């Protein structure tokens, strides 16, 4: 059995940067409180907790600094923290900050901001916050608000697939062009995740099964899984090596592995080791009996 790794996968620079910022702050302050998990990866979150980075959805008093994760937050959260007097450690990914700035700028310019993405995702909730009450999030496949306001700015959750974002904009124009007088389209997609999706798509085309490693709540990992399914390849979303079932790999010649932007290299290495062990067990079972 051959194990092939996607050319582009795993920790992105935005997540690495956020973790570096948190680690430095934890060393300096002893303990910090993160507004939500720093990344969607339980392993990394556990390691960071051991270093004194506690995850808490609600900012507490000013006893400890409060960390904002790579996904960013809305201005309301920043105001709340400021009221407590706590120091803010900002780990927001600059690509997300760019999205937030566009959302605010467009809303201030009188546009209604349509955010293509998951309204329940922390990044999207934060971006919506920057546009005040002039923003609506639309999940992939959901109907667009009707009637649409006449001046519309469209941005995307950073981790969406470029193909789906393009389809969304096409649907907007096809079905609602008569309602729109002015449309601004801002490409806020993250090129790291787009690159990882392209690499996963390429690998899915040449493998029998794909293993997609990443936190179960990680949006970019879920998109990698979708991309593999779009190629018609059997694919499994796993958080760790223990989840790999031997029956998934039976009669497979080529197994592909990819990983989300918040998956550490150690998790990928563990999966590769597990697949190799399973392949060795298969070989041992199939070995001809010597007479
Ligand atoms: S996936 Fe992209 S937007 Fe998200 S943290 Fe990484 S670099 Fe930033």
Question: Can you give me a brief rundown of this structure?
Answer:
With 291 residues, the protein is α/β, with parallel strands linked by helices.
Q: What about the largest sheet? A: 4 strands, parallel
Provide the helix percentage.
40-55%
Q: Quote the distance from N terminus to C terminus.
A: 27 Å
Global Rg: 22 Å
- Can you tell me the residue ranges where pLDDT is under 50 for at least 5 consecutive residues? none
Task: Encode the helix/strand succession as letters.
Answer: EHEHEEHEHEHEEHEHEHEHEH
Structural class: alpha/beta
CATH topology of the largest domain: Cobalt-precorrin-4 Transmethylase, domain 1
Shape: flat
CATH class of the largest domain: Alpha Beta
Structural domains: how many: 3
Could you give me the name of the CATH homologous superfamily of the largest domain?
4-hydroxy-3-methylbut-2-enyl diphosphate reductase, catalytic domain
Please characterize this protein's 3D structure:
The protein has ten helices and twelve strands. Helix 5 (122-130) links the parallel strand 6 and strand 7. The protein is 44% helix and 18% strand. Strands 1-12-10-11 form a four-stranded parallel β-sheet, with helices on both faces. The mean pLDDT is 92. With 291 residues, the chain is an alpha/beta fold. Residues 12-15, 70, 93, 95-96, 158-159, 190, 192-193, 220, 261 line the site of iron/sulfur cluster (SF4).
Secondary structure: elements and pairs:
Layout: E1 2-5, H1 13-29, E2 32-35, H2 42-50, E3 53-56, E4 66-68, H3 75-84, E5 88-90, H4 94-108, E6 112-116, H5 122-130, E7 135-138, E8 151-156, H6 162-176, E9 182-185, H7 191-205, E10 209-213, H8 219-230, E11 234-238, H9 246-249, E12 254-259, H10 265-286
Parallel strand pairs: 1-12, 2-3, 2-4, 4-5, 6-7, 6-8, 8-9, 10-11, 10-12
Helix pairs in contact: 4-5, 7-8
The structure holds iron/sulfur cluster (SF4).
């Amino acid at each position: 059995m051959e194990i092939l790794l996607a050319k582009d996968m795993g920790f992105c620079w935005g997540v690495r940067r956020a973790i570096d910022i948190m680690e430095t702050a934890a060393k300096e302050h002893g303990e910090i409180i993160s507004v939500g998990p720093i990344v969607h990866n339980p392993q990394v979150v556990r390691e960071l907790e051991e270093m004194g980075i506690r995850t808490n959805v609600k900012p507490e008093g000013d006893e400890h600094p409060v960390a904002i994760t790579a996904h960013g937050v809305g201005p309301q959260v920043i105001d709340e923290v400021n009221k407590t007097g706590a120091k803010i450690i900002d780990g927001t990914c600059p690509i997300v900050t760019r999205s937030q700035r566009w959302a605010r700028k467009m809303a201030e310019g009188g546009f209604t901001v349509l955010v293509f993405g998951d309204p329940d995702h922390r990044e999207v909730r934060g971006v919506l916050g920057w546009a005040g009450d002039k923003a609506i999030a639309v999940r992939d496949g959901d109907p667009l608000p009707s009637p649409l306001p006449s001046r519309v700015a469209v941005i995307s959750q950073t981790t969406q697939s470029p193909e789906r974002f393009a389809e969304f904009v096409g649907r907007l124009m096809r079905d609602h062009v008569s309602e729109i007088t002015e449309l601004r389209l801002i490409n806020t997609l993250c090129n790291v995740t787009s690159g990882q999706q392209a690499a996963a798509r390429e690998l899915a085309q040449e493998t029998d099964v794909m293993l997609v490693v990443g936190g179960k709540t990680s949006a970019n990992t879920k998109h990698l899984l979708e991309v593999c399914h779009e190629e018609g390849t059997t694919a499994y979303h796993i958080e760790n090596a223990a989840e790999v079932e031997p029956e998934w790999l039976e009669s497979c010649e080529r197994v592909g592995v990819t990983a989300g932007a918040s998956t550490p290299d150690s998790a990928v290495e563990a999966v590769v080791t597990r697949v190799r062990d399973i392949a060795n067990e298969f070989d041992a079972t199939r070995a001809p009996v010597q007479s």
